[in-house]
Amino acid sequence: MSDNSLRLVWVYPDLLSTYGDQGNALVVERRANQRGLHVERHDVRSDQPVPTSGDIYLIGGGEDRPQRLAAERLRRDGNLSRAVANGAIVFSVCAGYQILGHEFINDLGQREPGLGLLDVTSTRGEGERCVGDVLGDIDEPLGLPQLTGFENHQGVTHLGPTARPFARVRLGKGNGTGDGTEGAYNDTVFGTYMHGPVLARNPQIADMLLRLALDVNALPQVDDRWYDALREERIAAATQPA
Amino acid sequence: MAANPGGADPLTPRAKLAVTAGKAVAAASRAAGRGSGSVIGGRVALKLDPDLLGRLAQHLDVVLVSATNGKTTTTRLIAEALGAAGPVVSNALGANMPAGITSALAGGSDAKFGVIEVDEKYLAGVARDVTPKAIALLNLSRDQLDRAAETRMLAEKWREGLAGSKATIIANADDPLVVWAASSSPNVVWVAAGQEWKDDAWSCPSCGGVMQRPGDDWFCGECGFRRPAPSWVLSGDHVLDPHGSAWPIQLQLPGRANKANAATSAAVAANFGVPPQVALERMYKVQAVAGRYDVVQFLERDLRLLLAKNPAGWLETFSLIDPPPTPVILSVNARGADGTDTSWLWDVDYTRLAGHPIFVIGDRKLDLAVRLEVAGLDFRVCDSVDEAVQLAPPGRIEAIANYTAFQDLRRRVGN
Predict the structure, then answer these.
(1) Which residues contact B22 (CB under 8 A, 6 or more apart)?
(2) What sequence ranges are listed for the domain Mur ligase central (chain B) (predicted)?
(3) Domain check: are B198 and B331 in the same one?
(4) Is B349 labeled as catalytic in the residue annotation?
(5) pLDDT tens for residues B55-69?
(6) How far is CA B13 from the centre of its chain?
(7) How far is B146 from B1, CA to CA, in rounded Å?
C-alpha cells in the first residue's frame, strides 16, 4: 500500500481467464473503491514482466495448455516469487492454484514444475471431472463464513506440512484427495479450486485480502444485500437434491 | 455406407422403414404436446438404421454450418439464398445434433440442397457422414464450459475432422481459432467477417505464443501463424466479393453479427452458383429466426426478443440494442441446456448497459444482481417478465435472455 492506492495485479489474463475468474478482480476493485481506496489495476499479459510492487495478485483458471505456458513464463519471469518474498498477497484459482504449488501434470501428461509458493503438489485424477456446486467450511483461524463456489477440474492436490487447507467441503470434491480438504494457504498465499467467481460468492474473502493488504483488523461495512441473497440461494441449492 | 447399385432409389427398404418409424414417433410426440418431435423421431430412425443420415444426404448438395454463435440464423440465410437455385431442406428449428438433422432431412425427399446447422461438438462426425459440398465456419468461443470441451480443443477436433474433407470450407478469417481449424483443409474460401470477442484467442492455437492484434489484423509473434488474405470482406454495410464488387447488405435482422452472417452466406451461395445480389435480396426477407429478433406485443408494450448464450453473444447483442434510455430486461437461467455454471456472466462487460433502465429476471437473477452491483449499475430485480414490463419506463423494451430463459420468455409473451 502506498498513499490511498491499492495495486491490484491480475496475472496473465491472456492465458488464465477462462472461467469468469476476472470477476475476482472486479469484486476486489469494487469493494476497495467502496472503502474509499483508489485501485491501480494492472492486467499483465504473459509477454510482459510481472510487476513486483503489487499489493494483491490474482491468478485465475484456464485450459491445460495455457496452464503449462503460464507456468513456464512465470518461472522464467520470477517476479511473482519476489513479490511474495516482499509480503505481497496472492489469491489463485484452479489452474493458477496448481501453478503456485511444487508441480502439476501438464497437457502433455508430464510433471511440470510450479513456483513452489504453496506447499502443495497436484496430479490428475483418474475418475470423472469434479463439476458442480460446492459447500464448505473455511479454515477456522481465518474467521470467515461458509464457502460456496462452483468447481470444474480434474486435479488432485495434496498438501505438504507447511500448507493449511483453505476449507473442508461438505458437498463437492475440493482438492480431490478424498480427505475433504479444499484449497490451501500459508501466510499470504491462497489457492482454491472454487470458481463462481469465488469472491463474488464469498465477498468476505475479498475483504480478508483487503485487510491483509491494508494491515487492518476491520473494514467499513458495505451494502452486501445482493451478495447475501445470492449466498443464501446457492447454499440452499447445494444442500437440496436437484 | 452401403452401395447403391442402379441408383434409382437412394433409400433401402430398411432406411425407408426407419424414416417412416421416425415420422410416426415424431407425430406421436407432437400429439402428446412434447415439442416438435423432431429429435425423438430422428433418434428412433437412427437406431433402426445407423447409416440413415448419410443415405438421406446422398441425393442432396449439402452445406454444413457450425459455430458457437450465429448457426441458426446463418443456416436460415443460406437456405433462403439457395432457394433461388432449387428446393432446400434444412433443420430450421435449430435441432442440430445427428438425431435432429436426420429427422429434418427425412422430411425433404424432393430437395436439391440440404442446409444443415451442426452443433460444434458433432461437426467432424456429421461432415464424415453426409459428405458435404461446403462447410461454413463462423466463430468459436467459450460456451457451457461445465460440459463442453475446451474451446481450443474444439478447434483442434475440427482441424482433425476437416483435414480429409473434400468440401469447400468457407471460414471466418478474423477468428484465429476458426482459421486454425480450417487451414488443415486444401480448399478454403476466407471471409473477413469480423469478430468483436477476442478473449479466447490471445494465445496462438498453433504454438502457444502471444497473439499480436493490431487493428483488424492478427498474427503470432513467434511462429508465423497469421490472418489469411480474405477473398470476401464485410465492410460496414457492404460485402466485397472476390472480384472487388461491393454488394449492399440491407437485412431486416439487426446488428453487425448478422451482416457477418449474411456475408458468409453470400460466399456460400456463390459456391453453389447463386450470385451475391440474388442471394442477398432473398436474405432480406428474413425477419426473425426461431423467435430471435422478433418484436412482440405484451401487456400493451413492444418487446424485442434477443438471444445471447455466452460472452461473445452478449457482446454482439449489446452493440445492436437501441441506445439509452431504452429499457432492457435481462434473463439468465442455468439449466442443463444453458450450462449449470454462471461464472461466464463475469466475462460479459455489463458496463455497456450504463444509462439503460435494467430489469433482471430468470432462475439466476441473483447472480446477475451481484454482477450488475459490482459493475456499479442501477437495476431492479423482478419476479417475472410481467412485473419487469409493468415497471419499465415507456418505449420499446429490449429483452435479452440466454437459452432456456429465452424459451421461457417466448412462451410467456406468446411468441
Answers:
(1) B41, B42, B44, B45, B48, B102, B103, B106
(2) 68-269
(3) no
(4) no
(5) 888 999 999 999 999
(6) 35
(7) 35
